[in-house]
Specification:
The protein is of the alpha+beta class. It has two domains: 135 residues, no CATH class; 69 residues, no CATH class. 56% of the residues lie in helices and 17% in strands. The strands form three sheets. A three-stranded antiparallel sheet has the order 1-2-5, covered by helices on one side. The protein has a three-stranded antiparallel sheet with strand order 3-4-9. A three-stranded antiparallel sheet has the order 6-7-8. A hairpin with a 3-residue loop joins strand 1 and strand 2. Helix 2 crosses helix 3. The longest helix has 43 residues. The protein is elongated, with a radius of gyration of 45 Å. The relative contact order is 0.08.
Length: 246
């Protein structure tokens, strides 16, 4: 049994397919593990994934066989014989010794009560979407805050008092009564708002008056303006038709 070859083969298939079916043994599934807190609530574990061995799934597919034949560059018939031989050696050794490790993939364990289980190898990253996230210990934040407070209290009082006191420039401005300054600031925007509102109102009234005057003039002089409007609105042929009908 080529342990290194099987390790790489198993690892690539489980990451790509999410499931690895081992004939006569069962299947290995890639399951999501949500984020969780420790029992004391002080450690936060990020979401991850785990390998779960299903001893009751005895179905089969050609994914493992086809990949085995492709990598060994042999026919499907020869690959089937070689693959079943390797799996038989793996199963026999795991059941005989109770544990079998494939470097780079994981450790198989077998008991008569639970059947097969599998644990990923230390360097096998099975959760690539959360790569780099580690558990957060909330106790560390508390310790950091306490140390910062201690460092601040260690500063001598004499050194802080000995520093020259610089009078802020804003004190000179403070001589102006606060109430007068506030009244001036409040009055300025009100005047601006009133002036702009009055201008808008006057403009609107002027426009309305002009429109009314124009409408009145058009109504009064409608008879004298009719020829001019007809020349503007109608062509010569349309005028002949209109006057003919009239």
């Amino acid at each position: 049994m080529n342990s290194e070859f099987l390790s790489g083969l198993f690892r690539d298939i489980i990451l790509r397919e999410g499931e690895l079916i081992l004939p006569f043994m069962g299947s290995i599934l890639l399951e999501d593990v949500p984020a969780s807190f420790s029992e004391d609530g002080m450690v936060v574990t990020p979401p991850s994934k785990k390998l779960v061995f299903n001893n009751y799934n005895l179905s089969s597919n050609d994914i493992l066989l086809n990949e085995y034949a492709k990598r060994r560059e042999i026919s499907r018939f020869a690959a089937k014989q070689a693959l079943y031989k390797d799996l038989e050696e793996l199963r026999t050794q795991a059941e005989k010794e109770g544990v079998l490790t494939l470097e780079g993939f994981g450790t198989f364990r077998f008991t008569d009560r639970e059947g097969y289980t599998v644990d990923p190898a230390p360097g096998f990253v099975i959760s690539t979407d959360t790569f780099g996230l580690t558990a957060v210990d909330l106790n560390e934040d508390v310790v950091v805050e306490e140390t910062v407070e201690e460092e601040i209290t260690e500063v001598p009082v004499e050194e802080t008092v000995s520093e020259p006191v610089v009078e802020p420039v804003a004190e000179k401005v403070a001589e102006v009564p606060a109430e007068e300054a506030i009244e001036k600031e409040e009055k300025k925007p009100i005047k601006k708002k009133r002036s702009s509102a009055s201008k808008a109102l006057i403009t609107t009234v002027v426009i309305i008056v002009v429109l009314l005057v124009a409408a009145a003039l058009i109504y009064i002089f409608r008879d004298s303006l009719r020829p001019i409007l007809e020349e503007i609105l109608y062509s010569d042929e349309e005028l002949r038709i209109i006057h003919y009908k009239l």
